[in-house]
Amino acid sequence: MDQRKAEAKPSAAALREEIARLEQHVAQAEERRRALIHIMGDLNESNRKLGEQRKAMLHILEDSHQSNQKLGDSRKAMIHIMGDLRETTQEMERREQELREKQEQLVQAGKLATLGELTTGVAHELNNPLNNIGLFVGNVLDQIRLGRFDAEAAERELENAMEQVRKATVIISHLRTFGRAASVTFEPADIDEVIEHSLLLMQEQLRLRGIEVVLDLCAEELVVFGNPIQLEQVFVNLLTNARDALEDARTKRIWIETTRDEELITIRFSDSGPGIPRELEQRIFDPFFTTKEVGAGTGLGLSITYSIVKEHGGEIAVEQRDGRGAGFWIELPALLDQETLA
Ligand SMILES: Nc1ncnc2c1ncn2[C@@H]1O[C@H](COP(=O)(O)OP(=O)(O)OP(=O)(O)O)[C@@H](O)[C@H]1O
Ligand SMILES: [Mg+2]
Questions:
Q1: Please, are residues 217 and 173 in contact by the beta-carbon 8 Å criterion?
Q2: CATH of residue 227
């Protein structure tokens, strides 16, 4: 029984020991609790950071989505632009074709204008041989009427009349060729001959105005590969311009000079007129540029001249002659002998 009491009533020392053990236990629990709180805090912090990172990720995802969309948009825009570009290119090609056609029409229109202008001169030119024919035939008629027929003298008169008929025929047949639509066929063309033909068309107009033409032609035969009628138009245009420029000039002279330097033929047209002001040099080749009065000039002459020279693989420019009238030089590639044979 005592022993049981003793067992039921623990000794104070045992109790103290028990208390100490319990206190230690509590302290350990407290420590663990603190550690736990600490860990919880850390966890929270990590959670918060994770949350932030998640948000950032979402943001990045959204951004990349947007970039993707933007890329898609840009791709679409590019495809669109490519389509536009193709259309623009096609449009450009169409325009170029149109321009070429217009230019051809211009060449023809310019030619007809020149032709109209020439008609006045040609009337004079034909008038002259017709008058002469009248005179020569009249002489023969007089002989017959007056009973003084002389066969030899009559033959001379009639031969003279025939010569005049031939002259008139040449002028007319030449005008017909000139007026024909631009045939773009190229052939070996003799520059001397082309110059001669343009002078034939212009000579009466120049003579009536007291304009002297001075020729300084190269001794060699100058042949180019081109269209003689178009080249003739070039020279007629330059002669017409010189004619107009010399209207009020005291000395009325036009120089035509040809030279050859290996593969290049140079043709110079100059006159003793007032010349071309430097500030106009760049503009005179523009279509419709004219300093002439309304109705007097179309301003097409030099622009047509320019395109014809270009079509012949050549160059044309104003030559500065400092107060000594206007000068133009034209350079054309010479047709070499081998090419003629080929
Ligand atoms: N030899 C020249 N001397 C002085 N000015 C010239 C000469 N040639 C051309 N010009 C100037 O260049 C301009 C343009 O010449 P272009 O032949 O193109 O037209 P245009 O002669 O005025 O008219 P169109 O030839 O249609 O009758 C002329 O108006 C003139 O001002
Ligand atoms: Mg002109």
A1: no
A2: 3.30.565.10
